[in-house]
Amino acid sequence: MAASLVFRLHDRGPELVREVLLERGWEEYDKRHRHDEDWNLYWRASLFHKSDYYNLMPWQRLNHHPKTVGITRKDYLTRNLRRMRTTFGSGVYDFSPVAFILPNDYIRFLAEYNRQRMSPGLPVHWICKPVDLSRGRGIFIFEDIKDLVYDSTVIVQRYISNPLLISGYKFDLRIYVCVKSFNPLTVYIHQEGLVRFATEKYQLSHLGNLYSHLTNTSINKFSPFYKTEKGKVGQGCKWTMSKFRHFLHCQEVNELILWQRINNIVTLTLLAIAPSVPHCPNCVELLGFDILIDVKLKPWLLEVNYSPALTLDCQADIAVKKGLISDLIDLMNYRWVDRFRDRAYKRKLHKCLKVNRSSYVSMPALTNVKCSTQKVKEKKQSQTSKHNFRSEQRQRSSSASGQSGRLHQDFPF
Ligand SMILES: Nc1ncnc2c1ncn2[C@@H]1O[C@H](COP(=O)(O)OP(=O)(O)O)[C@@H](O)[C@H]1O
Ligand SMILES: [Mg+2]
Fold first, then answer.
1. Is 20 domain-assigned?
2. Residues 188 and 321 in one domain
3. Structural domain total, the chain
4. How far apart, in whole angstroms, are the C-alpha atoms of residue 377 and residue 383?
C-alpha cells in the first residue's frame, strides 16, 4: 500500500494551503513521527535555504524557485527592468513607471524632477515606497521635493495620477502567476484574480489620504467606509476578476488588448531574471503581480509579490484563492509514484535517486511499482482536471540556452 502524500508547512501556515491539501487527502508532516525526507511538498512564505535545494529528493517539491528576489524586491525590480529597457528598448519595456532607488539615484531623480517641473502641462506626482516593506506600509505620495523624507532605502516612482476609476474609486489588479520553470520559461496566469479598491473617492488634491490613493486591503479594511455601499463597487474593497471582466464587457470595453498587454508584462518581467535562476525542476513559484490600469486602459506594473497573501478576508478571497491553490497543486503534477517515497529511502535507493534527481519520472525502480489500474485512474484524472491556469507562455531564454528568443502566447486569460 502506498502512503498518502505529505505536506510540510513552515511556521504552521498558510492555513489555506493546509485546508486545501487536507481536503485532497494529504497528510501533514510531523517531525516526531516522520523521517526527515518523508514529505512531498514543503511550503514556506519566506526564502528556502540553499541546502533545501541541494538535498531535494525526486518526490519532493518546493514552493519557491531560488533567486526570484530579482523581481520581488522593489529596488531589484527597478534595476532589472531598467537594464532590460536599456538592452531591449523603451518601446518594449514601457510598462513600469519611471523609478529611482534612493539614496543612490538621488542626483538622477533630482534631474528628472527638475525636468518635469520645467515642462509645461499638469504637475507630476511621485510615490515613495520602502524597498523591503509590503502592504502599503511606509508609502506616501508627494508633489514637492521638500516633502520627500526617508530614512531607509526607498524607491521613488512616478505616480500614475490618471488611474481608471469605477464610481470614482481607484483600483488595481492582483494577477496570480505560477512559474513552473524559468528555463524554458513556462508560465501560467490564473484566470481568476482580485480587483482591489480604495475605499474613498480618488482626489489628487488630498495626497495624504491613503484610503483614496492606496488599494491595499491591509489598509482599506480599516477605512470607515469599508462596509458602506460605494456606488458600483459595493461594500468592502474587493472584486473577483470575473466580476471585473463582466463589468468591462457591460461597458463595451475591448478587454482583449488589455489582457494581452498584461500577459506581455508578466512575460517580459520574468525574462528579466530567467537566465539567472538556477534550474530546479521540482520547484514552482506563485507570484502576485500588482497592475494598475490608467484611463487610456494601459496597464502598469507596480510590483511583484513573493508569497502573495493567502488570507481569506472576504467572499472574493474565498472564491479566488481556494481554487488558485488547488490548481497550483494540480500543476505540480504529483503522481502515484510520489507516494512511494518511504519505500524509496527505506530500500536505500538514495544513491540511485540522487543521480536522477533532476527528473523524478525517470526512475525505473519506482515507476515499475505503478500498477496498470492506477495508470488508468491517473489518465482519467489528468483528463478531467480543470486548470484555471489557462494561459501558458513558453519562452526559451536566449541567454540561458543559446537559442534565439521566441515568444509564444496561447491566449489571454
Ligand atoms: N506608481 C504608482 N502610481 C499609482 N499608484 C501606485 C503606484 N505605486 C503604488 N501605487 C498604489 O500603492 C499601492 C501599494 O503599492 P505597492 O507598490 O503595491 O507596494 P506594497 O508592497 O506596499 O503593496 C498599490 O496597490 C497602488 O494602489
Ligand atoms: Mg502591492
1. yes
2. yes
3. 2
4. 10
Query: What residues contact 259, with CB distance under 8 A and at least 6 apart?
Result: 412, 413
Residue with CA closest to ligand 1 atom 9: 302
Is residue 411, in this structure, part of any structural domain at all?
A: no
Q: Are 73 and 59 part of one and the same domain? A: no
List all residues whose CB is within 6 A of at least one atom of ligand 1. Answer: 97, 127, 129, 134-136, 139, 157, 159-160, 172, 214-216, 290, 292, 302-303
Rounded CA-CA distance 298/95 in Å is 8
Same domain, 212 and 352: no
Q: What is the DSSP string of 138-190?
A: T-EEESSGGG---SS-EEEEE---SB-EETTEEEEEEEEEEEEEETTEEEEEE
Looking at the structure, tell me whether residues 351 and 250 fall in a common domain: no
Give residue 333's region: left, alpha or beta (phi > 0; psi -120 to 50). left
Domain that holds residue 270: 69-97+160-328
Indicate if the pLDDT at residue 220 is higher than 90: yes
* pLDDT at residue 369 is higher than 70: no
Percent of the chain exceeding pLDDT 90 equals 72
Residues 272 and 352 in one domain: no
pLDDT tens digit sequence for 50-85: 999 988 888 999 999 999 999 999 999 999 999 999
